[in-house]
Specification:
Distance between the termini: 49 Å
Strand order of the largest sheet: 6-2-1-7-8-10-9
Number of helices: 9
Order of helices and strands: HHHHHEHEHEHEEEEHEEE
Radius of gyration: 20 Å
Shape: globular
Structural class: alpha/beta
Bound molecules: S-adenosylmethionine
Length: 276
Amino acid sequence: MTSPKVKLEDIEIQLLLEGIYRYWGYDFRNYAFSSLKRRVQNFIKIEGYTSVSELQARVLHDSNCLERFLLSLTVNVTSMFRDPSFYLALRKEVIPLLRTYPFIRIWHAGCSTGEEVYSMAILLQEENLYQRCRIYATDFNEKVLQKARTGIFSLKLMQDYTQLYLKAGGKESFSEYYTAAYDSAIFRASLRENIVFAQHNLATDSSFNEFHIIICRNVLIYFNQTLQKRVHELFYNSLCSFGILGLGRQESIRFTPHDHQYQELVKGEKLYRRLN
Ligand SMILES: C[S@@+](CC[C@H](N)C(=O)[O-])C[C@H]1O[C@@H](n2cnc3c(N)ncnc32)[C@H](O)[C@@H]1O
């Protein structure tokens, strides 16, 4: 049996999420509760509050506190060519399909600081398709998008990224894509030419175009089933016939209401093709 204290904290968190939604418009009410609760508790400790209610009073009145809170609530971890076999599968199985389109619209939903999007831009350049593409890279967090727009990442990471790039079937020398300056790697501006970085909230916003590919990796795992269902609905309705959906390692289309409307394109790589 849970203690009254624990129950009270759960109620406080629900009230906090309701307040943030009603006042600021950010909807965390259908995020997976246990991991969200851990993050709230952690934030309270770091900021030195004594209860969730104290945090609520603060976050509703202070936009700076809200900004810090938003960043602490979500996991923003990402990497270039994360799970390289996914990119290899894209190269081998998806690129030939894309070649049949005169113009290609791609949506990276929940793109975090952009590493995934730059990886896609590099892959498309190497396959001579980039000029035909428009990539929409979205996240609900403006802070991470600001970083993504700069195309500047830590130089320290470049050794690891080079290995991942090679495993992903990279064709050039990875260092061609960036210039080193002090401890930063500044990626070529030409990679950004056809990318639009914009705010979009998967919990509240609707579709904004029709896409040939939607990539949304390592985002749905943080949502409960209600929100996952909403997002699958959004993706299905935003994909063109025979469009491609790419999910993260621990995510799947299986057991969702749209299961039967997709065919698994590459086994194990979470790449699905809309059937009609
Ligand atoms: C773990 S990162 C994944 C980044 C990248 N897709 C990858 O796989 O490397 C999760 C991202 O989802 C974003 N996110 C969380 N909730 C969101 C929502 N409701 N709408 C849009 N993005 C959201 C977070 O801001 C974060 O940048």
